[in-house]
Amino acid sequence: MGVEAGSRVSVRNQPDGSLNIATLDTTTKPKKRKMEITNYKGEGLIRNIIAAYVAGYDLIELVSPRILAEQKKIIREICHKLIGPEIIEETSKSVLIQDLLNPEEVSIKKSIRRMYLISTSMHKDAIQSLRTGEKDLALDVMLRDDEVDRLFLLISKQFRSLFRGTRLADTTETSIDEYHDFRLVASSLERIADHAHRIAGVTRKLQGPVPEEIMGPIERASEEARSTVEKAIDALYGCDVKLANKTIENIQHIKTDVDKLNASFMKLKDVGTVVGLGTVADSIERTAEYGTNIAETAINMAIATTEESA
Q1: Is the pLDDT of residue 217 over 70?
Q2: Would you say 190 and 149 are in contact if contact means Cβ atoms under 8 Å apart?
Q3: What domains appear along the chain, each with residue ranges and CATH number?
C-alpha cells in the first residue's frame, strides 16, 4: 500500500520469518497534540502530559490565556522525569514540548535489563539502610525510583507505537506478542522498585535500630526475594522453563518466612516499629510475588517461541 514505481522501501526480517516491506516516507509530519491547561494543576497536569507522551505525540503544545509559574515548574519537572521530551518554545501563553528520542536507538530488552538492575539494587540498599539506619542511603533509594519510572513509561510508549508501525531497535527480532510480554515484565519491575521505595520510607521514619534477632531474618527473606527476581529474569532471557517453574515453586517458602517475621514483630514494644517492620515484610513478600509474575511470563514466552519454531 502506497508503494509506486520509484518508491524507496525498507525490507526487514520478522520473527516469524516473513518480510516486512514499508515505504521510506521522509515527509511524515510530526504527530502533534494541543492541550488547554487553564484548569489543570498539580497531579492533573502531570497525568495529562504523561498520557500525551505515552500516546506517542512528537509535539505537545500546552496553552492557556496565562500559564502560571507553578504550572511551568511542573511542566519542567515532568520533562526532566521523562526520556526524550524537551521544552523547545516557551511564552506566557504556551509551552511547546518536543520528543527528541529516536525510537530506533532504544532497545526494549536493554531497557528491561536496566529496570531490573536498578530495582533490585534499590531493594538491596533499602534493606541495608534499614540495618544501618542510614537516612541518606534510604533517600538515595527513593530518588532512584524516578529512573525506573522513566524507563517504564518509555517502554509503555514504545509498545503503543508498535501498533502505528513505528520501527524500534528490536523490531526485526521481537514479535508484537513478545513486546506485550516485555511490557508485563516492565510493570512488575516498576512495582518492585515501588516496594523498595516503600522500605526506604520506613527507614527514614524509624527512631531506633532494628534488633539483630529480627534484622537477620529480614535480610535472609530479602535475599530470597531478590533471588526470585534474579532467577525469573534469567529464565526470561534464557527461555528456561525449568528454572522459571522452580522459581515459582519457591514462593511458598518465602511466604512462610514472612509469616514468621510478622509473628516476631509482635514481641516488640513500640507500636510504630511493629507497623513499620510489618510494611517491610509485606514489601519483601510482594517483591517475591512480582518475581514469580515475571517467571510466569518467561514460561509463556518460552512455550510460544518453541511452538513457533517447531
Answers
A1: yes
A2: yes
A3: 32-99 (3.30.110), 104-309 (1.20.58.220)
